[in-house]
Each structure stands twice: as C-alpha cells, then as structure tokens.
Amino acid sequence: MMDFPAGLSALSDRYDVVLCDVWGVIHNGVQNFPEACDALVKWGETKGPVVLISNSPRPSPDVVPQLDGLNVPRAAYSGFVTSGDATQALLKAQAPGKVWKLGPPRDEPLYAGLGLTEGTCEDADFISCTGLFDDETEVPEDYRDRLKVAADRGLLFICANPDRVVQRGDRLIFCAGSLADLYESLGGKVVMAGKPYPAMYDLALEKAAVLLGRPVDRSRVLCVGDGVITDVKGAHDQKLACLFIAKGIHGEKAVGPDGQLIPYAVQALLDAEAVGATHAIGDLVW
C-alpha cells in the first residue's frame, strides 16, 4: 500500500540509490527547487548515489550547463542519464540515412558525429523528434499535415522525449511525446527512448553500479518523479520502488486548496493509468 512520508530522510533506511527525475522535481525550467536540491545533496552525503534520469532529448553532457544555469548544485547528483543518451543508440542504427529532424536548434548536439543527412517529410528515410520547433508558440496540431505525409510514406518516428508536456514556470509546454501520439493516430510507427522505456533504466542502473562499486540490489533502488505515464509507469514496469512527486505536472488534481495532498486523488491519478507508486509526497524535501 502506498504511504506518504514526510520527506526523503524517512526512506533512507530502505534504499541505497535514488534515480531522480529532473524537470518538475528539482526545477521547473525557470528556477530550481531549493528544498529538492538540498534533499538530494543530503542523500548523496549520507546515503548513496543519486543518478538523474531525464527525458531531455539531448545527450547528458549537453544538459549539465542548463542545470548549472539554474543553480542546481553539482553535489545534488553523481550521475546523469538522458533520453538523448538512449536515442543516440537508436539513431546510429539508422545511419547512414536521411533524417527529418523535428525539434529546436538547441537539440543539434544529439546528431553530432552520427553521419546522418537532413531531409524533409517528403524525402527523408525516417523521423527524429526532440520536440516542437517552437514550443512557446506551436501546438501539435500545427504538424498534422506534414506528419500525415510522413505517415503515408511509412517513415519510422524516433521519439527522443516521451514526455507529452512539461511545466515551464507556471505554464505547460508540449513535448515530443505529444507529436508521437499524433503520428501514431495517423497510422505511423513510433519508437520511444527515455522513460518509461527499459533502455533508460538499464543505462541508469549501470551508472549506479559503477558509482556503488558493486552490483545494484534492485529492491534498494528508489525512483523519484512527477510524471505518472513516464516516471511512475517506468518504475512500475521495472518493478522498482517509486516516490511520486504529486505537486508536479499533476498538482491541480492531487492537491487541495490548502496545499495539502489529497490521498484518494493521488491514488485515482495512478489508478487511471493502472500503475502504482510505493510512496507519494507533495514536493521533494529532506
């Protein structure tokens, strides 16, 4: 049965490793969450490694500067794995080839050194999607006509970020997963990297084993995240414990006017996706 701990410290005797989501848990794209960062620092100092697992479509070394820019302390994590890391393996399998790149210029590091040339929906061999070209102004429907052309041609759609939306400040922003959903609805074939898919967890647990200096006991791994269909489902499918951060992207459905969690509402969120969490808390705190 799911419980509601007061903070991460209440779980420190049960787990050795934390696999922690990034966006929505330790920052919102505009500012960091100081208490969450402090909780991870204290875990690392007193308990064991923290491996960040993010659905960012860029390779992990290219995301670290973003965390630095948001003043997320380096002491808050000792390893980092992204959907971009997992996606590169999928892209390498398509090389040499012509790719229709969907996503903003900031995601170009994903393609470095892979030997791919750039195409369009009309002449590419496959699609790689890291997001919308301009997630500040566009919505998935803006892509329907072009995606229909690609789907009719039978192009494979590689999705580098399964997130449908993320919270940026006080707004929800569409991500690559929303375009993948639209493409599937048009009859296209989609392959996903990132959470909740196994490759991300394989990479993260490999990283954790190196940091621990010994094999990982999966019963002593705690996943932390705010996305029901990414973080919670990923942990659920991997049979790993999960601390659900309920005030993230689902906050309006799980929190009352007084700012307190509503346990039955939290449970309803999870039941709707047929997944379970071991623990739930409003925000990540120590």
Give descriptors for this structure:
six-stranded parallel sheet; five-stranded parallel sheet; 286 residues; alpha/beta; 32% helix; Rossmann fold; 9 helices
Question: Outline of this structure?
Answer:
By secondary structure, this protein is an alpha/beta fold. The protein has helices at residues 34-46, 60-69, 83-92, 144-152, 176-185, 198-212, 228-238, 251-254, 263-272, and strands at 17-20, 50-54, 79-82, 97-102, 116-118, 126-129, 156-159, 165-168, 171-174, 189-192, 221-225, 241-245, 279-281.
Kindly describe this structure.
With 286 residues, the chain is α/β, with parallel strands linked by helices. It has two domains: 8-84 and 196-281, Rossmann fold (3-Layer(aba) Sandwich), CATH 3.40.50.1000; 87-192, 3-Layer(aba) Sandwich (Rossmann fold). Helix content is 32%, strand content 19%. The chain has nine helices and 13 strands. It has helices spanning 34-46, 60-69, 83-92, 144-152, 176-185, 198-212, 228-238, 251-254, 263-272; strands at 17-20, 50-54, 79-82, 97-102, 116-118, 126-129, 156-159, 165-168, 171-174, 189-192, 221-225, 241-245, 279-281. The strands form three sheets. Strands 3-2-1-11-12-13 form a six-stranded parallel sheet. Strands 5-4-6-7-10 form a five-stranded parallel sheet, with helices on both faces.
